[in-house]
Amino acid sequence: NIIKANCFDGCSSIKALVIPASITVIEQYAFNGCSNISALELGDGITSIGNYAFQNCENLEELHLLGEVTMIDRFALCHCNNLSKIVLLASQAPELGHGDYVSATDTAAA
Question: Strand 2-3 and strand 85-88: pairing?
């Protein structure tokens, strides 16, 4: 059960998002440019978050990772300028792909 690449790319009507446990992978650019998402909860089935998956989610403030995420790929949260809180419930920190996770202006989230 996968959220495919570019599936919701640029969808500005999404304001809050809860991804159920039945989803295991979020592919690259899946939610890129969903600029009005302010809260995001990833269910405990998520194991992998692809490149640029949430890039340019400019109003994202909180990210809750409820499961055993094993991989967060490069630039997954790039330009999430308002991201100030990440809750990670995994027993181990996920592997991080090469590259930056926040832009130079995103230092509050780093």
Answer: unpaired
Give the integer Cα–Cα distance in Å for 56 and 98.
18
How many whole angstroms separate alpha carbon 53 and alpha carbon 9? 9
| pLDDT tens sequence for the chain (110 residues) | 999 999 999 999 999 999 999 999 999 999 999 999 999 999 999 999 999 999 999 999 999 998 889 899 999 999 998 998 888 888 888 888 866 555 444 444 44
- Rounded Cα distance between 28 and 61, Å, is 20
Do the Cβ atoms of 28 and 73 come closer than 8 Å?
A: yes
Would you say 83 and 63 are in contact if contact means Cβ atoms under 8 Å apart? yes
